[in-house]
Amino acid sequence: LSKRLNLPYTNDEVGHLAQTFDMMIDKIDESIKKQKQFTNDASHELRTPIAVIQGQAESMLENNHDIEEYKRTLSIIFDEARHMGKLVSNLLLLARSDSNTDKLNMESLNFSELLEGIVEELKPVAKSNNVDLCLTKNELSYIYGDQTRLTQLFYNIIDNAIIYNLPGGHINVVVENNGYYIKTSIQDTGIGIPEEHINHIFERFYRVDKARSRQSGGNGLGLSICQWIATVHGGKIDVISKEGHGSTFIVWLPAKSEKDR
Ligand code: ADP
Fold it and tell me: Could you tell me which residues come within 8 angstroms of residue 65 by beta carbon, excluding any fewer than 6 positions away?
């Protein structure tokens, strides 16, 4: 850890300078600690799929197996490789967001159309999970934003609403526009989030139930990416949730006004 000045915080210029200096050092220490934790977590997450791939390939190379066994193993290897691929692209995106080097392609977008496309794409996924997904929107909404990133944001949140739902459950996506902000609520009747976890779910690699998340292809980076995307668009994400009853994720994004279209 970095050194402090070791000067008393007296009520004069030197005291104030010493206090400011120590506060800055605290912030730098905190940021170094976070970076170390991130590298640690990332390495750990990458080790799991690599170990599975190695183990499976080794066992197939050792003896002769029937074709069905080879197929089963190849399918496990394929899933793990896909998991790793998603993890690496998420890590790269977060690294670019940290260094402010992800170039956003900002343009005027028909927000209603964009959201409708995502909901249509996810409907079959919801259906195969026995979950009902519907979209309610009134007037057309426009936004100034990056289409790829905004698609990623809503895809992640609606996908989570499917994954963390229960068979026979519902998801309601509601869009409201007050002329200044577009408020999109993604309301699910799923498992909900225990109160003590709510404040942490946007942290990198944070998962309430690691096994459930991994089984459905998650890596705990989705929501931190969503929050970054909302922030760079001048918006934010709120969460209301009750364990055993469901969750509502509310995404606020600046609307494009009528005269700017
Ligand atoms: P993951 O890849 O694990 O889904 P996310 O960053 O998208 O990672 O979400 C972090 C965690 O927040 C999840 O592992 C899950 O525990 C919780 N979570 C996210 N969305 C929901 C939801 N709609 N209902 C219940 N829990 C959720």
Answer: 73
